[in-house]
Every structure is written in C-alpha cells, then in structure tokens.
Amino acid sequence: MMVYERRKPSLMERQRLTITLKQDILDKLDATIDGARIRNRSHAIEYHLGKVLGSRIQKALILAGGRGVNMRPFTYEMPKAMIPVHGKPILEHTVTSLRDSGIRNLIIYIGHLGERIKEHFGDGSGFGVSIQYVEEGKSEGTATPLRAAAHLLKDSPFLMLYGDVLIDVDFNEFVDYHLESKALATLAITSVSQPSEYGVVKMHGSKIVEFLQKPERSSRLSHLIFTGVSVMQPKVLDYVPASGSSMLEADVFPQLAKEKKLVGYLFEGQWFDIGTPEVYEQALKEWPVKK
C-alpha cells in the first residue's frame, strides 16, 4: 500500500476556494478594483485579507548609523534618525508605520550616538514592536549592516530601510509585489528632478537593468531613483563583501541588476531623504501631521 502525504503549499502558491459574500461587500470590493494596483475581484479579496492579516514579511532592518555630517548642528547631539518631525523622531515615524503594517520584528543598526536610540525605544515593547540592536563596527557603508546582522536575517525575506527616510508607501503591497516578482531584491523607486544626487535606476518593465550611484548630470539620465527602502531575500547576503567597508549602491545593487535579479517598485506617495537642512525644512512643511 502506498501512503501519500499532503504537500504543504509554498508561500506563493494559491488554492482555489469557493466563497459566498453579501452583495454589499462585493460592491465595496469591486469599487477598489483599478486594473493596476488591484487587478480583479480575486485579487481584491486577497489584497484586503492581506491588509487585515498583516504582512507576509515580519522582519525589518533599519540602518540608523552614520554621523549625519550634513545635518549638523542637530547631529552633534543626536543621531540623524532621531531628528524630530512633528514632535516625533524620524525613526519613530518608521517604527509606527511598520507596526501598523504588521511588521513588528525590528533590527536597528546603530552607530554615532546610538545610545540615544536605545534610550528612546528600548526593546520596542512600548511601541508595540520587538527591537534588537546591532552596533556599528569599524567598517562603514550601507552594505556593512547586512553583514553585521546576517545571523538575524538569514532565514526569511526582510525589509531594509534607511533610518533617515520618511516614506508614504503601502508596505504590505510592496512586500506582495516583491514576493510575486521572484527577484532577489525589490527597490522602492520614485522620480525626482535632480537624480544625480541619488542612486539612479534604469528599468525595462519592472526589471532594473542598471544601477548608477550618484552619476554625473546628463539630459539622458533617468529620473527614477532608489528611495532607501527595499525588500530582500536572504540570498542577497551572499553579495555583500565578506570584509571591509561596502555599499549597497556600489557593490550589491549593480551586480544584482547585471544578473537581472533586481526589480523596481514605483510608488506615488511622499518621500523625504532627510540628509540636508533644505529637505528637512520641506518635510516639516509637507509631511502630514498624524495623531
């Protein structure tokens, strides 16, 4: 006699279900279908259930090291991620947004004046999350934190965010987009008028085919740039140099783009990379006040 064991569905597999819903609920679902973000009725049901049940990724790495030289004198007294916007540190806006999206296992990479971050957030319980800290070593760069936190990231996909960024993006939709793309990493992408100040991407469809870090100004330069927010598979850790200082924008993303393993997610929400007093002033004026 042969015994068959039922195979557990993988994360991305779908199973056909038959359900009965009230007409008023169906009407509300249908009203959310726009053919782009939500493609059809089946996708609408999946999308809204996902919003209620929380993200399919539970872990996020936030990079909050660095000295924030361009934001002095603020950063003489506090890390850049702790600069206040509407009475709360930039980092608290991020933590709250992740928590509200169901992403509550956070790893914060700290460096310059990192004890201020620990004092404010503690273990995260007061903010409805769980926080672990990884401290900056001698090596610098945006890829180095991934190497330092690899033991906490190696088992499942994770979000990676720069700690000095304010972003209005639907994290659950972003995560779903990444998981469906089968890419090793998905970058949140926006458009700016001066792209040469950022990591510039060239895209074919959803694929990022070239990543250029702060290229020289050119009329032919793409205006699409990396926002400092991404979703990554643990396999990305293999692309981080084993020692020394390293940059995602110089050492990791260009290689992933070359191998066609990097995808871009265009979003329309607000975004502020608070790296200069001018951008900070703009964020104070335009970032919405939330109660």
Walk me through the structure.
Helices cover 30% and strands 23% of the residues. It is built from ten helices and 13 strands. The chain has a seven-stranded mixed β-sheet with strand order 5-4-1-6-11-8-12. Strands 2-3 form a two-stranded antiparallel sheet. A two-stranded antiparallel sheet has the order 7-13.
Task: Supply database-style keywords.
291 residues, alpha/beta, two-stranded antiparallel sheet, 13 strands, globular, disordered N terminus
Summarize the structure.
It is built from 10 helices and 13 strands. It is of the alpha/beta class and 291 residues long.
Task: Give the topology.
Elements: H1 23-31, H2 41-53, E1 59-64, H3 74-77, E2 84-85, E3 88-89, H4 90-100, E4 105-110, H5 114-121, E5 130-135, H6 144-148, H7 150-153, E6 158-162, E7 165-167, H8 171-181, E8 185-191, E9 199-204, E10 207-213, E11 224-232, H9 248-258, E12 262-266, E13 271-273, H10 277-286
Parallel strand pairs: 1-4, 1-6, 4-5, 8-12
Antiparallel strand pairs: 2-3, 6-11, 7-13, 8-11, 9-10
